[in-house]
Amino acid sequence: MVTLARPDKLNALGRAMVEELTTVVERLVASDGVRALVLVGEGRMFSAGADVEEFRDSFRAGDVDPAGVEAEARLGSRLADALQAAGLITIASVHGAAIGGAAALVAACDLRVMAVGSRIVVPELIMGFPLAWGGMERLVRDLGPSVVRDLVLTCRPLEADEALARGFACRVLPAAEALDGARELAELVATRPAHGTTVALRRIAALSDRTGAPDVDDDAASLAAASTDPDAMAATRAYLDSLTTDASSH
């Protein structure tokens, strides 16, 4: 089991955490002794997505480095690609919420177990940014373009029950049982012969990939371009200010 363990920050995906997760997942993918991995968040939710504290000041000041934004996008895409690597079955155990980049990681997993009341949220367009980390392609692959347009443009949540009905989640369980359910699922699928499992996952990916594999270059370049767009910068500053206002009111 791999745990997102920054509960005091709602498991926000900062650079150091993404780098560490990538190292761990890539090592597990290369290991002959590991067949399945459960990805889970510690505390109140799976993950709040990108760590806004890491870019708050530069975005407010309008001093954003597009090359740095592009590098961050490539780093997240590398983690998502590792989660989808054939040969290691990845299972996301989602409770609370998986937001933004965290939603992209959930979409990269082979199977998703969601707790009752949990949700997937893609709020990037509130700030004028596209969803990166290969998340757009994977969501379209598993949900279809019409549903993803709705989720991306309105930023409404994909609730667990809807995720199950649309085939995005394979199980929805009571919150107290979701992690155990994901572990039991991992134990089950890990008993399948390794070669056949790898071939099956690759064939399923090839057959279902109507949108094509995630384009890391386009993903990263689009995010970098948005970081220089005046409208996106204004929207981002307004969003960051709203977070500060919300925090001070509690």
From TrEMBL:
Signal peptide limits: none
The protein's name: Enoyl-CoA hydratase/carnithine racemase
Pfam families: ECH_1
Record lineage: Bacteria, Bacillati, Actinomycetota, Actinomycetes, Propionibacteriales
Residues in coiled coil: none
UniProt superkingdom: Bacteria
InterPro entries per the UniProt record, alphabetical: ClpP/crotonase-like_dom_sf, Enoyl-CoA_hydra/iso
PANTHER family linked: ENOYL-COA HYDRATASE, MITOCHONDRIAL (PTHR11941:SF54), ENOYL-COA HYDRATASE-RELATED (PTHR11941)
The organism of origin for this protein: Nocardioides marinisabuli
GO biological process, one term: fatty acid beta-oxidation
Gene Ontology MF terms: catalytic activity
Gene3D superfamilies reported for this sequence: 2-enoyl-CoA Hydratase, Chain A, domain 1
